[in-house]
Amino acid sequence: MENTEIKGIIFDYGGTIDSRGVHWSEVIWDGYRESGITVDKETFREAYVHAERKLARVRHILPHHNFHDLLLIKMRIELEWLAERGHIAADTVEPLAARVAQYCYAAARECIEEARPTLEALHARFLMVLVSNFYGNVSAVLEDFDLLKYFNRIIESAVVGVRKPDPAIFALGVEALGLPAQNVLVIGDSYKKDILPALSLGCHVAWLKGKGWTADEDAVTHPSAITRLSQVLDLVK
Fold first, then answer.
1. Dist. CA 109–CA 66, nearest whole Å
2. Residues 159-198 pLDDT 10s
């Protein structure tokens, strides 16, 4: 792409900045194994989906919760579900939740510090907006990780009332940048939730492709795919 075409950038957050494009279920699964939780992966995925659905129905995560708080809440819900079904002992829920949450928080921080030089370089040259499906606390998460300073605006699904893959949430990001869509680069880790809706608006895209939720997602290919966030710097030279 020509340098003159890109004047603003829309970033996804979860999975893009904090896990190298790897679906967060995979990071948590690694946390389970690191913590000695011996359920099989199918059972884990059932617990993961249960927690996501419960968090969507009932407001457990509040605006002041940082990412460690969020993880601890999620892990308690997952592990309580496993305990209710006899997969783990009930008295292990709290210590295991703390252990998995700490593992995942440390993994996120490591990825964020790896991404920081790229964010710094892009922030020095471009207007940047964050567009995220999140629980209403993304600003607290960004503040804890010292990431707020990189973004001119935050567009969060729980706040604006529209979620990816609806292109309308990206349209809000484009509007916040004050640029035509053809001058905007969207960077995300989900082909269906980030790349396709951004393309439908006429934006440029960079797909940070890591391990996805399904084999079908992993099999998808696209010319915009990158394997490291730092490769974005080559795209905007």
1. 12
2. 999 999 999 999 999 999 999 999 999 999 999 999 999 9
User: Using an 8 Å Cβ cutoff, are 155 and 176 in contact?
Assistant: yes
Output the CA torsion 154→158→93→108 (10° steps): -20
Q: Which CATH superfamily is domain 8-22+111-235 in?
A: HAD superfamily/HAD-like (3.40.50.1000)
- How far is it, in rounded angstroms, from Cα 171 to Cα 31? 36
Nearest to 155 by CA among 179, 140, 172: 172
Residues in the chain: 237
CA distance 184 to 63: 29
Alpha helix ranges (H) inside 10-123: 24-34, 41-57, 67-84, 93-123
Residue 15 CB coordination number (10 Å)? 26
Indicate the domain borders of the chain. Answer: 8-22+111-235, 24-108
Q: For 25-181, where are the E strands, in sequence order? A: 127-132, 153-156
pLDDT in tens, 94-146: 999 999 999 999 999 999 999 999 999 999 999 999 999 999 999 999 999 99
- With b for 16 or more beta-carbon neighbours within 10 A and e for fewer, the 110-127 pattern comes to ebbeebbebbeebeeebb
Q: How many CB atoms lie within 10 A of CB 220?
A: 14
Q: Which two tokens stand for residue 21?
A: 């494009």
- What's this model's pTM, rounded to 2 decimal places? 0.93
